[in-house]
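User: Could you walk me through two proteins back to back? I'd like the raw sequence and the structure tokens for each, with a short line separating them so I can tell where one ends and the next begins.

Assistant: Of course. Protein one, sequence then structure:
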Amino acid sequence: MSRTSVEVSIEPDVFRWLCGTSGWLAKDIAKRIEVPEEDVRSWYEGKTEPVLPLTKVEKLSEAFKRPLAAFLLSKPPEEIKTLPDFRKLPGAHGDFSKETHLAIRKARRLQNVRSELMENIGSDVRITIKNRTIRDNPETVANDERVNLPVNLAQISTSTPTKLFQIWRDWFEQKNITVLQLKMPVEDARGFSLTDIEPFVIVVNESDAPNAKIFTLFHEYGHILLNESAVCNRDSDEIDDKKIKMIEYWCNRFAGAFLVPEDFLKKELDIEKLLQTTHYSRIAASIANRLKISKESALMRLLTLDYISSSEFRTERDKIRADAALMKEKQNQSAKKSGPAISLDQKCLNEKGHRFVSLVLKNSDLGYITSRDALDYLDIKMKNLEKLRAES
């Protein structure tokens, strides 16, 4: 019997779950497997049962980034509830994109993998942080959190955003907070956090600029302090939902207070005197350059401390975003003309971090997992695994 003649029956609930967690729309699915869109909608609504040739199921498996076995389930697996959507709508264009759905699933899987690997070697998966609420003053919380820092203000000013991001990433991972860099459309999500199970996870958008990633990192840490999982973008605090707006304001203010201490503005910059002689956009640029954050983040800090008005902030913010969009377009053009992509081992380190890679290698060396497991967890080939071993 040929593979094309083998038919697969998919349970409607399973089909709905696979579609819903993939981000694929009915029209896209119909085009991918060459069936009428009405048929796909009928399957999704449970009116008819999907019965497809194996070859079409394989196409769906590839598109959804799911194993074939997932299509043979009798019912959807029990999964952690969908992440709360803290993005500003309609700026985020409704539902998550395919890439963001995939990033969320990938982060959840790596969260579970890390938990199992840590238990294998007797490491504690719990994190030792003090839980906060939005009733706590974010300025005070930021000051409380600024203890035993891995870098001081002088070192920050002479570092680069890329190096500084790695320093902060290591600092969080020492707290048992996994930090991942995963690819998503920037307009869809700047980052998200997972606090359902330990170890907790922060995901920043791989496509974002290094200095913007730093602010996102601390914004999402604010969510972890509040024990709130969330998917966020840069305007989440402007959403209509009152609770979400309060949480996002708290997280933005915490991140700003941590990265731009008020004492720094008063003592190092003499901010009040500076504002009398220098335009606030130049001051924001100076803060961004000194502290390796984005100019928009620096501008937001001036707003939260009432050094500038909301209208001044919005006007300058829109200019910054317009300039950034032009710069991004130029970078994309340059990227098309650039050399070969980075190696899988370097991509693995950027995405998952040195600590996760070391944890996988240690489990492999101790015989808790096979080399095939290690390749699967790290998403690399054998030659890349040997390179990682040599670097560790």
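----
Protein two, same layout:
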Amino acid sequence: MEKVGPWTGRRIVVCGGTSGLGLQIVIAAAQQKANLLIVGRDTARLETAKAIAMDHGAISAISYSIDLSLKGISTSDGKGEGEDLVRLREWLSTHNVDLLVNAVGRSDRGPLEQLSDADLASMFNDNLICTWNMIRTMLESLKRAHGTIVNIGSLAGLVSAPGMGGYSISKSALTALSRQLRLELACDGVHVLLVCPGPIAREDSGTRYQKLAAERGLTSRSATEAGGGVKLKRIDPTMLCQKILDAAHRRKKELVTPSKAAWLAAIANGCPSLADWILRKYIPSKTSRKFESSET
């Protein structure tokens, strides 16, 4: 159903908009009749995302296939830029961006002692560097529009839990990046919203970590439940996207959901011993890593 909202007729860029929460944001923005630009890697998925956006009411939808990783992004002298990155830079020179949503990233599972240098570097690349490169590419256009940047972080970026691999570390870095950017860009009229959701409902919830957890010797509970094994109600992505677009319009600084999780984040900052006790109470012991026999 088409909806008239604060982003009607505005120009919105969604990085990572071909699947997961990013695609849900594309749909929510399209329902408000926004003009959409979708950035991703897979050209087939980009074509599908554009079609979905138009079907849900977008005024326009264009896309660019760009690898924003350290390996894929251009050097400072512009050598080696992909064709779509060149085209995007040309487009940005004549168009202002009202809203940039960075929804690119991936999760992880496993104890830190098993993380290799390559594992950790890969997590930082996907959860921090890609977002940073997107922001740098869009920044001048955002400044001209006095636009808003939305970085999709995680509750794990505010409160670390055992068994999350490199995910909490890299998302904590994204939290720091967002907060520093918000302070530095305020003088240019650019706002930064950090979104820290808990586990989001998706079709493969409960199965997506089973193989990885088995390889790394985690409990079956860590594989099938979110947050390293703590029981948390999964968030409806449609409702979350509506909250994100509303918070971006109102220029809120941070959106933490579920809201009660913000209390745990505050406790972790003010009384880490109490926060550790709460986490130990509701998350399986680190020493209980092997799958139960019924799961193997």
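The chain has one domain: 11-204+235-260.

Let me know if you want the two compared in more detail.
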